[in-house]
Write a structure and sequence with these properties.
The complex is a heterodimer of chains A (111) and B (114). Chain A is an all-beta fold and 111 residues long. Chain A has no helices and eleven strands. In chain A, the strands form two sheets. In chain A, strands 2, 4, 5, 9, 10 and 11 form a six-stranded mixed sheet that branches. In chain A, strands 1-3-8-7-6 form a five-stranded antiparallel sheet, with no helix packed on it. The model of chain A has no long low-confidence stretch (mean pLDDT 94). Chain B has no helices and eleven strands. The chains are: A mainly beta (111), B mainly beta (114). The interface between A and B is medium-sized, with 26 and 26 residues.
Chain lengths: 111, 114
């Protein structure tokens, strides 16, 4: 069965800290891995990764994919209170190319 | 509209009742997805449409759940004989194709079954 596992489940840090969120996947016919940020309701897109070893970067956020070891990490440097959210990882694949989500990592950034 | 629109935003119903949740995707997006999210969990796949047809309905939990997309645009998720365990946020998302790319999510419909 296809699955995506995220760790840690939750994390509390102080402003200015750097955090690393982990995502491992077992997805047949794997196509891509996506990261989303969910603050209240609608998840908002962060990154899509399809190739191993190529870092994607957006401001203080960056992500990389390892297709050999079947995992991805999301890094946030110099965290701010506005980074507090649930970070969702999802793998696209399976027989019908659907998106399969992990349970998410709840990040709380304290002032 | 510019984004994915879902109605109602909140629905409270009694056990055993029938509910319909509506999703209006981004114009031109051929793929439409329904997910269910319970507290503390990630979105759980229910069904997705490519055009008017259900390309994958393997996530529907049982035959009380049904979804349609008759004209390839708006979709309705229908839940019969609701149970308390159906309480969750139902998220709809759309994308231009199913091959690659991000999904654009709506704000969700929060269903509470009393």
């Amino acid at each position: 069965e296809d699955k995506v596992v995220q760790s840690p489940l939750s994390l509390v840090v102080h402003e200015g800290d750097t955090v690393t969120l982990n995502c491992s996947y077992e997805v047949t016919n794997f196509r891509s891995l996506l990261w989303y940020k969910q603050e209240k309701k609608a998840p908002t897109f962060l990154f899509m990764l399809t190739s191993s070893g190529i870092e994607k970067k957006s401001g203080r956020l960056s992500s990389i994919l390892d297709k050999k070891e079947l995992f991805s990490i999301l890094n946030i440097t110099a965290t701010q209170t506005g980074d507090s959210a649930i970070y969702l990882c999802a793998g696209r694949g399976g027989a019908t190319n659907k998106l399969i989500f992990g349970t998410g990592t709840l990040l709380a950034v304290q002032p | 509209g510019a984004g994915v629109s879902q109605t109602p935003s909140n629905k409270v119903t009694e056990k055993g009742k029938y509910v319909e949740l509506r999703c209006d995707p981004i114009s031109g997006h051929t793929a439409l997805y329904w997910y269910r999210q319970s507290l503390g969990q990630g979105p759980e796949f229910l069904i997705y449409f490519q055009g008017t047809g259900a390309a994958d309905d393997s996530g529907l939990p049982n035959d009380r759940f049904f979804a349609v997309r008759p004209e390839g645009s708006v979709s309705t998720l229908k839940i019969q004989r609701t149970e308390r365990g159906d309480s969750a946020v139902y998220l709809c998302a759309s994308s231009p194709t199913t091959d690659t790319g991000e999904l654009f999510f709506g704000e969700g419909s929060r269903l509470t079954v009393l």
